[in-house]
TrEMBL record, chain A:
It comes from Didymodactylos carnosus. This is VPS9 domain-containing protein. The lineage of its organism: Eukaryota, Metazoa, Spiralia, Gnathifera, Rotifera. GO terms for molecular function: guanyl-nucleotide exchange factor activity; SNARE binding. InterPro entries: UPF0507/Ank_repeat_27 (IPR051248), VPS9 (IPR003123), VPS9_dom_sf (IPR037191). PROSITE patterns: VPS9. Gene3D superfamilies: VPS9 domain (1.20.1050.80).
TrEMBL record, chain B:
SUPFAM superfamilies: P-loop containing nucleoside triphosphate hydrolases (SSF52540). Pfam families: Ras (PF00071). The keyword Nucleotide-binding applies. Belongs to the small GTPase superfamily. Rab family. Residues 149-195 are annotated as: Disordered. Residues 160-169, 176-195 have a biased composition (Polar residues). NCBIfam families: small_GTP. Keywords: Nucleotide-binding. It comes from the Eukaryota. PANTHER family: PTHR47978. GO terms for molecular function: GTP binding; GTPase activity. This is Ras-related protein Rab-21.
Length: 208, 195
C-alpha cells in the first residue's frame, strides 16, 4: 500500500517517478498531507459520493429550482445578455464542469480557483475591449482590478449557466473532506463559489 | 528556510475604489517577511448577508468610506458592528477615509470619523486611491499592528509559530515557507492592492 501511495503521490504532485527513491522528494509535511488527502479520499470516492448526493439531494433540487427562477428574472432584465455571457464563458464553464470528475476536496477546490481565474480573464478582456471601443468605463488604465461585486455577480451567472445538478454536493464535499487548510487564493475562490450558492439558495436575487 | 507570516485581511467598501477581488501583498519588517492576503468583499446591499463567509478567520479589516458620501460612512459603522460581533476584538480594524483628493467636497468631518474610530478601537487613515496617496502607509501600518498582535511574534526579531502553510484558518497569523519567486526585499511592498 505504501508503494502504491508513494507512486500515486508522486503523480499527484508532478514528481518525476523515473528517479530512484522518489519518495524522498515528498519533502514537506504539507506534501505528504496533500498526497494523503488525494489518495485516501480518491480511493473511497465511489463509496462516499453516492451517500453525499443523497445527503444534499433536497438542497440541490431546491437550488436547481432557484436557478430556473434566477434565469427567468435575469432574462427579463436583459434578453440578450444571457446568451452573450454563455459564449464568453465557455472556457470557465468547461472548467467548472470538471468538478464532476474530480475525486478529492483539494482537486475540486483547485478546479474552482482555475474557473475563477478564467472568468476574471474573460472579464478583463471585455473591459479592455470596452476601453478600445471608446466606450467610457469606470477604469481608464489597462489591467485594472475587478472588484468583488463584479466577480461574485459573474460567478453567480456562471453557476446558473452550468446546468450542473450537484452543485451543493460539491460544496459539501470540498468543505467536509479537506485535510488541510486551503491556500488563501484557493480559499477565496471556494468562498466565492459558496457565496454564489448561498445567494441563489436564499433567493436574494428576487430583490433585483 | 526563510519563513514569513501570513495574515488574512478583508476589504470592505464600495466597488469603485479600485479594489481587486483577491490580492497578496508582500512586505518586510526588520527582516521579517509578512504576506497579506487581501480579500475584497462585495459591498452591494444584495450581497450583504454573504459577508460572514468572507470575514471568517480574518486577522485584519479595512473599512473604506468615501469622505464625500455620508451614507458610505454609515455603512462603515454597520460593518464595524458586524465585524466586532463576528470576530470579537482580535481583529485589527482600519477605517479609511478615501478620496482625500476631493477634500473640498468633504461631507464626513475628520473629527467625527476620528472620534468614531477611537470609540470602536480602530485607527483612522486618509487615502486617495486615485492618487495612490496613503495606501502604502495603510498596509504597512496594518501589517505592523497585526505582527504586534500575533502570538509569539514581536516586530524586530521575535519568533514565529511553526505552521508551514500559505493559508488561513488561524487567527494569530501563520508562518509560511518562503516561495522561490523573486520578491521585493527592500522593506516595502512588491504588489499593490488598491490603485
Amino acid at each position: 500500500l505504501w508503494i502504491t501511495f508513494v507512486n500515486e503521490a508522486c503523480q499527484i504532485l508532478n514528481i518525476d517517478s523515473s528517479r530512484k527513491q522518489h519518495y524522498e522528494q515528498l519533502t514537506t509535511r504539507q506534501d505528504i498531507e496533500l498526497a494523503s488527502e488525494i489518495f485516501i479520499t480518491g480511493n473511497v470516492y465511489t463509496k462516499n459520493w453516492p451517500a453525499i448526493l443523497t445527503h444534499t439531494e433536497i438542497k440541490d433540487d431546491q437550488l436547481c429550482q432557484e436557478i430556473v427562477k434566477y434565469r427567468r428574472k435575469t432574462a427579463i432584465l436583459s434578453s440578450t445578455a444571457a446568451s452573450t455571457k454563455v459564449d464568453n464563458n465557455t472556457q470557465a464553464l468547461a472548467e467548472l464542469k470538471k468538478l464532476d470528475y474530480l475525486k478529492s476536496s483539494h482537486e475540486k477546490a483547485t478546479c474552482i480557483r482555475t474557473t475563477l481565474d478564467l472568468l476574471l480573464a474573460t472579464m478583463m478582456q471585455q473591459q479592455q475591449q470596452l476601453c478600445g471601443s471608446g466606450i467610457t468605463v469606470k477604469y481608464t488604465k489597462n489591467q485594472q482590478p475587478i472588484a468583488a461585486d463584479e466577480t461574485l455577480t459573474s460567478f453567480i451567472d456562471l453557476l446558473t449557466q452550468s446546468d450542473m445538478k450537484n452543485i451543493v454536493a460539491h460544496e459539501y464535499y470540498i468543505i467536509t473532506f479537506k485535510f488541510l487548510h486551503l491556500p488563501q487564493d484557493i480559499d477565496y475562490a471556494v468562498t466565492t463559489f459558496r457565496a454564489s450558492i448561498e445567494y441563489l439558495y436564499e433567493k436574494k436575487f428576487l430583490s433585483l | 528556510m526563510n519563513r514569513s507570516l501570513s495574515f488574512k485581511v478583508v476589504l470592505l467598501g464600495e466597488g469603485s475604489v479600485g479594489k481587486a477581488s483577491f490580492k497578496t501583498k508582500k512586505l518586510t519588517f526588520d527582516g521579517k517577511r509578512v504576506e497579506l492576503a487581501i480579500w475584497d468583499t462585495a459591498g452591494q446591499e444584495r450581497f450583504r448577508a454573504l459577508g460572514p463567509l468572507y470575514y471568517r478567520d480574518s486577522n485584519g479589516a479595512i473599512l473604506v468610506f468615501d469622505i464625500t458620501d455620508e451614507d458610505s460612512f454609515e455603512r462603515v459603522k454597520s460593518w464595524t458592528k458586524e465585524l466586532r460581533r463576528m470576530l470579537g476584538n482580535d481583529c485589527i480594524l482600519c477605517i479609511v477615509g478615501n478620496k482625500i483628493d476631493l477634500e473640498k467636497d468633504r461631507h464626513v468631518s475628520m473629527q467625527l470619523a476620528e472620534e468614531y474610530a477611537k470609540s470602536v478601537g480602530a485607527k483612522l487613515y486618509h487615502t486617495s486611491a486615485k492618487l495612490d496617496k496613503g495606501v502604502e502607509e495603510l498596509f504597512n501600518d496594518l501589517a505592523q499592528r497585526m505582527l504586534e498582535r500575533s502570538p509569539g511574534t514581536t516586530v524586530g526579531g521575535g519568533t514565529a509559530n511553526n505552521q508551514n502553510r500559505s493559508s488561513t484558518g488561524t487567527r494569530g497569523g501563520i508562518t509560511i515557507a518562503q516561495s522561490a519567486t523573486g520578491q521585493n526585499d527592500n522593506g516595502r511592498s512588491s504588489g499593490s492592492c488598491c490603485s
